[in-house]
Amino acid sequence: MKKITSLILALVLTFSLVALSACGDKTTDDKSTAASDDKVITVGASATPHAEILEQIKQALADEGYELKIVTYDDYVLPNQALADGTLDANYFQHKPYLDSFNAKNGTNLVSVGTIHYEPFGIYPGKSNDLAAIADGATIAVPNDTTNEARALQLLAAQGLIEIDPEAGLNATPNDITSNPKNLEFTELDAAMIPNTIEEFDLNVINSNYALQAGLNPAEDALASEDAASDAAQTYANIIAVKAGHENDPAIVALVDALHSEEIQEFINTTYAGSVLPID
User: Which of 70, 72, 122, 232 has the smallest count of CB within 10 Å of its CB?
Assistant: First the structure.
C-alpha cells in the first residue's frame, strides 16, 4: 500500500512540475507577443491626403524598428470610435475643433499630440461658377457637423455673400447669419457626400481631403479658398490624435517626429501644390 501511495505522490509531483513549466512558457510567449505589438503602430486615416502622407513614413519608422499599419476610413465618426475602443493606436484625419466636439458628444477622452498639415476649405462650382453673379435664392451645400459648418459659413462671409454675428465665431450656424442679401439657401450634408452631389447645388463648400478624393484640385478648381495666413490655418490644422494617457508612448513620439520631418514637408508641398500645406 505504501508503494502505491508513493507512486501516486510521485505522479502528482511530476504532473505539477510539468504544469508549472507549461505556465511559465505561456507567460514568456505572452510577454514576447506584447513586446512585438509595441512595435506595430496602427493608424486610422482618411484616404487622401492622410493615408498617402503616412505611406511616406513607413520606411523611416521601419528604420526605428516600427511597423506602420494604415487603416483607411471614409467618414469622420468611425476612426474616433476605433481609437476610443483601442482598435487603433492613433488616427489622422481631423482638426482639433472637431475632436473637441466629438469628445463632448460621445464622452470620449481623445487628445491631440501634434499638428501636421492644413487643408484650405474651398467653395466649388455646381450650377453656378461665378461668385459675383450668384443668383437670388441660390442653394449652397455645406457640411452638417458643427465645426466644419461654421468654417464653411465663415468662408462664405469672407467672400461677402453673407454676414455672420461676430460673436458666433467658430460655432456659427445658419441661425447666426445677420445679412443674406441674395436669400441664399443652405443644405446641410455629411461632408463626405458633398462632392457626390456637386451638380445639385449652385455652390458647394468642401473639405480639401474630400475634394481631392473626388478628383478636384483645390488649388485650381475652387472659386475661393481660406487664406493660408488666416487663423483657420492653425485652428483647423489636421492632427494626430491618441487616447489620453498614450501621448508619450515611444511609438507615438516616433510617429509624430516622422511626420514633422523635412522630407514629409517637401512631399506635401510638391505633391499637393498648395491644396495641402505642412505645419512645422
Answer: 72
Measured distance CA(98)–CA(75) in Å, rounded: 13
Query: Can you give the pLDDT at residue 267?
Result: 97
CA distance 43 to 54: 9
Name the residue among 123, 128, 129 with its Cα closest to residue 138: 128
> What is the β-pairing status of strands 139-143 and 185-189?
parallel
Ranges of the chain with pLDDT below 50: 1-36
Distance CA 217, CA 122 (A): 10
Cis before 49? omega within 30: yes
How far apart are the C-alpha atoms of 247 and 155, rounded to whole Å? 33
Judged by DSSP in three states, 70 sits in: strand
Which residue has cell 474616433?
A: 80
CA distance 70 to 68: 6
Return d(Cα 120, Cα 148) in angstroms, integer: 12
Edge-to-edge order in the sheet of strand 203-206: 185-189, 139-143, 203-206, 122-125, 224-225
Its pTM surpasses 0.90: no
d(CA 1, CA 239): 76
Q: Within 13 Å and on the Cβ side, how many CA atoms surround 38?
A: 10
Q: Hey, what's the cell of 122?
A: 474651398
Q: Which tens digit of pLDDT belongs to each residue from 160-195?
A: 999 999 999 878 999 999 999 999 999 999 999 999
Structure confidence at residue 18 (pLDDT): 37
